[in-house]
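Below sits our specimen:

——
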Amino acid sequence: MKKLILFIIFITLASCNVQAKQTQTEDADIKRQIEYLNIDWWQNFNDDILIEHLKNLYQKNYDLKNTELKIKESEKIVKLQFASELPSISFDGFIARDFRSSEQRFGSMSIPSYAQTNFQLPLNASYEIDIWGKNRLKTKSAEQKLEIVKQAQRATYIALTSDFAGSYYNLIKTDKLIQIQNELINIQQEIVSKIRAKYEIGMCSVNEVLTEEKLLTSLTEEKNNLEEKQNTLINVLRAYLSMRDEEIIRTSFSDIKLIENIPEKFDTSIIEHRPDFLQAESDIKRLGYDVRVARKELLPSFIIFGQIGLNAYNFSDLFKTFTQLASAGIVPQFDIFSGGRKTAFLKLKKYQYDEALNNYQKTIIEDIKEVNTALCAFKVSKKNLSQAEERIKIQDKIYSLAQDKNDIGSASKLDVLYNKENALLVQKDKISNSINYIISVISLYKAAGGMNLSELNENI
């Protein structure tokens, strides 16, 4: 009874230990995913709605869910490989019955009417002595594969969040452009009305009327295109969030924040944080381990085996002392001839290792190019935004002067409408340049491997 109680306690403690380890693993997975989401960076945009969308993206997006499943798969592969470093114990029960036959011969000895039952209940154990460290290297190679998968997940997080944020801000831009486009259409309708009135009293030609009407149709057509783009962006964001017909909530253009403390130069070491760079590094390490494993495959291996159990020919004798079975030994294994398979495998791994080195060098070049391209786009968008702000100040002054002239009678209402229309067109440029600046910042964040650029600026 005491033994049974002790056994139950042991099983309970072991179960609790397994559950505790599983909980720790799940907590580590969640911590890693939150780190990859990088909320601290996105809070620089001062947009709570965007943050909420990114949290929903983290919970609902199927691509992100699949990346987590791939990590779990790779973790199990590491565990499977690690199992080869440990001894294996198995139970191979055997019960056989030789039915009666006319005669059973053992050399010159004959046993008539032979019949026999054999009970074997052995525990078999085997262990490959890892003298050369081959199995340990295989496990290290599997661990590097796991690191590659983790960096692939990080790359997916950076790409998805960046692409989502880009589409989100493009939607905000489109909302504002549609609003201004409606104002332009209203102004142009008023202009057309006044031009028609002038035509009716003979103060302008029919060509002026047709020109203004043509411009009105162009403005209406542009509005239609903007509305189509708006619907497309809404559907894109819904797909990211795995939504169907739900409304995409977004902030207004007037509430967006432009991040200003973004560095305009980077050290080339910034690429060391990019997922593809870290993947290339891990791939070199993995294949380095594989080459060493291939070399050690040329050496002999040694397996220790053992067996302990019971062997009886009568069930009643099964648990008696004289039925005990035990054996142990060591088995050396060495392929004298394998058709060149092992040497070919070694050369294959060496070629793959050289290929990984070339890919590593190529990755460095491509990463530097991508960072420089994103940095150039950021600088240009920053300059364009500055020029657009200057242009809108100038146009506002022109519009204000037209209003003053109209008040004193030196300019017509049409002149005021034309200048107001020009002011709105310049405002459209400023809106586009503002969002282009934000998107260039997001692209730079993506190119920098998901680093918090505002914190990076503090260290330069």
